[in-house]
Amino acid sequence: MTRFGFRTVVGLTVSGIFLYFAIRRINLLATWTILSGVQVVFLIFAAAIYLVATWVRAWRWLYLFEGLQPRVSTLFAATAVGYMVNNILPLRLGELARSHYLTQKADVQFPMAFATILVERFLDFLAALILAGITLFFVQYPAWVVKGFYLAFVLTAALAAALFVIRHFRNACRRMITTLAGYGPAGLGRAFGRGFESFRAGLGALRMGRHLVPISLLSILLWLCYLMAIIQVFRSFGWEMPPSAPWGVLAFMNLAMMIPSAPGQLGTVQFFLVLILGLYGVQKEAAFSFSVVLHFVIYVTMTTVGLFYFIGAQVPLGRVARMSVSQAAISAGSKR
Question: Cys-Cys link to 22, which of 5, 27, 270, 336 (CB 3.0-4.6 A)?
Answer without folding.
Answer: 270
